[in-house]
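The protein record minuted underneath.
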Amino acid sequence: MSVTEYRGFAGVRLEAEIRGSADDPAVLLVHGAGQTRGVWSGVAEALERAGRRVISLDLRGHGGSEWPADGRYDFDAMVEDLRAVLAQLGSRPVVVAATLGGWIATAALERDAALLASGLVLVDVPLALDAEVARRIGARLREAATLAPGQAQWDSRLLDAFDSEAVVERLAGAPRAIALPTLYVRGGLSELVPSDDAAAFVATFPDGELAEVEDRAFVVADDRSEAFGGYLIDFLERRAPRASPEYREGSDARSFRDALGCFATGVTVVTAMCPDGTPVGLTANSFTSVSLDPPLLLVCIANSAGSAPFLRKADRFAVNVLQIGQQPTSNRFAGKGEDRFGATPWMVGEFGTPVLTGSLSSFECAREAVHDGGDHFILVGRVLKAIFEPRRDPLLYFRGKYRKLHFA
């Protein structure tokens, strides 16, 4: 076990406890208001025994994390804290978050969920706060904060800076955008979340499921958290298994594609002119340089593509490397039944090839060689001219999704 630090929003120092091997799948634990990472101790030990790397985070103003001098505990700051931590991790964890932490996690994953996490578990997260219930919870938290003056584990200023009703309203549509395996765990005796409300909430997630822990009001509360561990580990083994998927020759081709998808690439549109002067083109990410002297590159074209016969025979062709703003262009040239060039800015290049204007770079090539390669053919080109734009960023593709550069 070790303790590490992350930088949160506006540089706030956030502390976390880490258990388990760096090679094991990661789980990030996020506690609720008036708690610290210690509330997860039993769960963290069980997860470590189950072969998981466990990161237990203290929220700002809690435990060992920084208590901001300016008392900034607004919801947006805490959401950006969590997004910053997720961006600093070396892998995409399953996020497990309780009460306030669940609100924060839901908002943090409303954007770019698949880039930041591999799953989400929400525990006892309030969906709508009855005024009287909210008053009782606030009173209990304030009382707990004053029981041991000078020994408080969290900053009671949080209670004055937080608008719980506004948060609940803000999160109303967030689940629809979180396309991750999601588990909502409710204490069977919970006064915060009626069972019917929990079921309706889970139904708004693209891939959600509900579990109820009997004879519990709060599932994660010090000595009662063991009742939750079985549900959590079962979910992880089913939806985020430790064993790596594998492909063997002759088995499912989808697994082979998924394995290839682990290699991040740029995205190109390969273009040429038909003999009648009509431009053709298609999206391809199998592109690489071959030689500097002579200047050679290659692209792999599916034999089944509509443009394939023309690209195979073309004396000259162009490879247009797309920038981050050209995702619609990539989709257009990957689809069917659309006037690709009619909706795309382009010009005829110096060597007679269609060049997409605004691309990150464009290579005009003469056909050097064509090689058959299974259900694709390999088109090797000798570069006649290259133009490029140094002020743009590339459109990337990884694991079946478009991506963009992250600058640390």
The two ends are 26 Å apart (CA to CA). The chain is about 25% helix and 30% strand.
